């Protein structure tokens, strides 16, 4: 199998790679150290090291997910906006149609393959230890094998189909965001389709209006984030390579710092510290009344948008994110996202709960309801060894996925596109004539004869055709 085509190093891949790494750390934190989601150790206590602003972003999974949506809005719209602003509207619309088909397939097939892998592991008993972990989150995302093979097959089919309507994955619940990525992508495509022929200033005004509407309507997961990404893409098209030399070096650095501080809004117990409680009170006046439990989503959007804009204008920040290590993380970001929860429920749980599972605890049951007791996690020393080993295994598996599974999905999507798409038509710019490019010579001759006939009729009518019916 030929190796996959390697993308050039770029700051967007580096940013995406850091975000995917933080998503994993956020889920590990949710599983074993939920207290880190609070701004301090207790209501009257002092914050721990990773509970401090900025440092807490090392386990800030919500900020990382927001970055993914921002990058989705940026990447999906950059080329169509570039072509539209250059006047290549036909190219913009053609590429938009291709991207709508191709990118959707590149989300659909890998996600379903990863879900099938999780289903297989589940039916083989790979999640049995996770279902008895003392971590409520791990137990919640783990499932026992089906009672019968037919029931297991039925659950798999439901997971591969109904999942795409509501995002409730049976065998890997953390895949819920992928459905939002898909719907967000289609909203981007629809916006680009509606604004391809619109002047730049009006396109920007429309996107800003959509952002405001999403903010006011409580669309805090998808809308405000993808439209922020589209606005940054518009900045990229407008400024190009001049962007990282326009502002004094201190300005982008300040923007990055402010973005990190705003994104540090805690996920739980906001009233435990004065700084987070002040942020909560401010946002209460700026958001709809039905979103009081999701104020962090709004703060994270403002923070990550400011952060990404600061990186956009900063040459040094771009240089750091273009480092090969960050770009390797970026190229592996999607398989890391797809597979990390399966490895948490298997490899990491086996290392953390293995000692308890091999003891008498495995056969003990609760006196009140007769259910098996939860397994006790190992000590700190086990985590010191287990966490690095888990990450090495995760990125090794993701690298294998990028070399074999991802190219297979790409070939399937490309084959479907070749079979389903008709031949491209090169539209003429005249009002009465057009040259159609097809494979067959007869069709090409008919197109030429049609154009000549229209020209002849135009000349017979006093030269009208020479002005308005000129073929491309």
UniProtKB/TrEMBL annotation:
- Pfam families, alphabetized: Acyl_transf_3 (PF01757)
Q: Which GO terms describe its molecular function?
A: acyltransferase activity, transferring groups other than amino-acyl groups
Q: Could you tell me the superkingdom of the organism this chain comes from?
A: Eukaryota
Q: Where is the Acyltransferase domain?
A: 10-347
Identify this protein by name.
Answer: Acyltransferase 3 domain-containing protein
């Amino acid at each position: 199998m030929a190796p996959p085509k390697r993308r050039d190093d770029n700051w967007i891949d580096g940013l995406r790679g850091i975000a995917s790494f933080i998503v994993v750390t956020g889920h590990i934190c949710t599983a074993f150290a939920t207290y880190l989601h609070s701004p301090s150790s207790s209501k009257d206590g002092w914050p721990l090291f990773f509970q401090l602003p900025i440092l807490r972003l090392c386990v800030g999974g919500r900020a990382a997910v927001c970055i993914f949506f921002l990058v989705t809005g940026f990447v999906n719209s950059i080329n169509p906006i570039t072509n539209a602003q250059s006047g290549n509207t036909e190219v913009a619309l053609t590429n938009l149609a291709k991207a709508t088909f191709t990118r959707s397939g590149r989300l659909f097939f890998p996600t379903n393959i990863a879900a099938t892998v999780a289903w297989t592991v589940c039916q083989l008993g790979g999640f049995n230890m996770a279902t008895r972990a003392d971590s409520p989150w791990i137990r919640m995302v783990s499932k026992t094998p089906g009672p019968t093979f037919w029931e297991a097959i039925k659950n798999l089919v439901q997971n591969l189909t109904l999942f795409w309507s509501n995002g409730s994955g049976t065998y890997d619940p953390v895949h819920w965001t992928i459905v939002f990525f898909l719907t967000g992508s289609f909203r981007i495509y629809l916006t680009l389709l509606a604004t391809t022929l619109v002047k730049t200033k009006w396109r920007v005004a429309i996107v800003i209006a959509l952002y405001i509407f999403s903010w006011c309507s409580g669309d805090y997961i998808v809308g405000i984030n993808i439209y922020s990404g589209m606005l940054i893409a518009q900045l990229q098209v407008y400024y190009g390579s001049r962007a990282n030399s326009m502002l004094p070096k201190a300005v982008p650095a300040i923007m990055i710092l402010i973005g990190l501080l705003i994104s540090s809004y805690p996920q739980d117990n906001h009233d435990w510290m004065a700084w987070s409680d002040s942020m909560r009170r401010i946002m209460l006046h700026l958001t709809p009344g039905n979103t009081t439990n999701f104020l962090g989503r709004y703060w994270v959007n403002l923070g990550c948008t400011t952060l990404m804009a600061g990186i956009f204008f900063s040459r040094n920040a771009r240089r750091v994110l273009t480092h090969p290590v960050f770009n390797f993380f970026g190229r592996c970001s999607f398989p890391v996202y797809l597979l990390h929860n399966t490895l948490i429920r298997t490899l990491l749980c086996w290392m953390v709960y293995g000692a308890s599972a091999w003891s008498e605890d495995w056969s003990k049951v609760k006196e009140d309801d007769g259910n098996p007791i939860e397994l006790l996690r190992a000590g700190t020393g086990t985590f010191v060894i287990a966490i690095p080993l888990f990450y090495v295994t995760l990125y090794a598996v993701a690298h294998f996925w990028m070399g074999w599974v991802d190219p297979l999905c790409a070939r399937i999507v490309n084959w479907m596109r070749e079979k389903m798409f008709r031949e491209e038509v090169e539209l003429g710019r005249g009002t009465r004539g057009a040259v159609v490019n097809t494979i067959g010579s007869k069709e090409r001759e008919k197109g030429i004869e049609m154009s000549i006939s229209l020209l002849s009729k135009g000349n017979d009518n006093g030269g009208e055709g020479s002005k308005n019916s000129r073929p491309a």
